[in-house]
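Need residues for this backbone.
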């Protein structure tokens, strides 16, 4: 039976003997070595951390389990979040499982159908805000000051504590930190959490080195790259369509302390990586996840010396999170045939006997 991140990494988490050891089986996600993409980029030692294998299909479950456990410990009467989709799905699932009322605020027209369906299926109260994510987050931060409910966005430090466990798993699997970690950046909590995890593990003697954190925002939602909030963020990668990241300064510190970068990739680059991952590596991820690989491809094309480097790209969520985009953009052909063997063979260009 899966241990879950609280049981597996309790010594590194802010849990006490009063914290309920809850789990939906989050964590322990695969670290899959690349074959074709690594070869195309000159022989890298490239891995993909498949966070879409978490219970609700994204990395958010790692932090949510700790946030909900601490809310239960504190006797909270409910949890609330603003979300572009994945946070709402995770909050709703853990709330349903452990009998905590859940309210989510989502920006109208800016949440992928699969994620919204999850939150509703788990029984959360969903409020659709006629505005953007940043406006929704401002409202929930005010609401928790007025009501006895817990905010479970990544501004809740327990969220980042849970998310840092993915860095522990990378080191446990590889025996040390990689040279580079490529990661999508939206609200900027995940790059902050990974860096925290690597630093803590090195401090405990579990790793000898630290990676360079290479964060990538979508070009139309790149406030950190531009150095100012983006009032109307726009990108096909809805999970990182955020104009004023809550963990902005912490992400900059992770970037600078690690000697890394935070850059942007455009939607064409994101979609190219999205299709390449599926067709070349058998990894179907949501568009925001592909930003990590798009960023790596951009670095390679810009002439970065990466040969021989050990690199981990964080694949933050499953492609099934955004089925509408997949249906619109998948390039493989479908051919309709009758139930006759000869017609099927003809379609396959196999001459019949």
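Answer:
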């Amino acid at each position: 039976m899966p241990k879950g991140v609280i049981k597996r990494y309790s010594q590194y988490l802010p849990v006490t003997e009063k914290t309920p050891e809850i789990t939906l089986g989050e964590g322990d996600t695969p670290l899959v070595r690349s074959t074709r993409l690594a070869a195309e980029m000159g022989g890298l030692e490239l891995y993909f951390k498949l966070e879409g294998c978490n219970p609700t299909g994204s990395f958010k479950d790692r932090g949510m389990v700790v946030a909900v456990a601490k809310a239960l410990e504190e006797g909270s009467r409910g949890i609330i979040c603003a979300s572009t989709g994945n946070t709402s799905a995770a909050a709703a699932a853990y709330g349903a499982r452990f009998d905590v009322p859940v309210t989510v605020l989502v920006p109208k027209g800016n949440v992928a159908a699969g994620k919204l369906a999850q939150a509703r299926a788990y029984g959360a109260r969903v409020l659709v805000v006629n505005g953007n994510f940043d406006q929704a987050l401002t409202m929930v931060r005010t609401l928790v000051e007025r009501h006895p409910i817990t905010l479970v966005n990544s501004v809740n430090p327990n969220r980042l504590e849970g998310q840092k466990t993915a860095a522990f798993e990378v080191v446990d699997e590889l025996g040390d930190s990689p040279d580079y970690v490529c990661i999508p950046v939206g609200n900027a909590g995940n790059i902050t959490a990974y860096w925290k995890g690597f630093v803590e593990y090195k401090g405990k003697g579990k790793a000898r080195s630290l990676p360079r954190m290479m964060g990538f925002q979508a070009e139309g939602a790149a406030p950190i790259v531009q150095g100012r909030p983006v009032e109307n963020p726009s990108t096909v990668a809805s999970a990182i369509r955020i104009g004023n990241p809550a963990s902005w300064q912490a992400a900059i510190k992770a970037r600078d302390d690690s000697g890394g970068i935070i850059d942007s990739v455009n939607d064409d680059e994101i979609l190219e990586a999205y299709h390449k991952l599926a067709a070349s590596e058998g990894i179907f991820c949501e568009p925001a996840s592909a930003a990590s690989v798009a960023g790596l491809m951009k670095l390679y094309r810009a002439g970065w010396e990466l040969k021989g480097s050990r690199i981990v790209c964080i694949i933050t969520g499953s492609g099934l999170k955004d089925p509408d985009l997949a249906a619109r953009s998948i390039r493989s052909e479908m051919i309709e045939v009758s139930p006759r063997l000869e017609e099927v063979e003809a379609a396959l260009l196999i001459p019949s006997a």
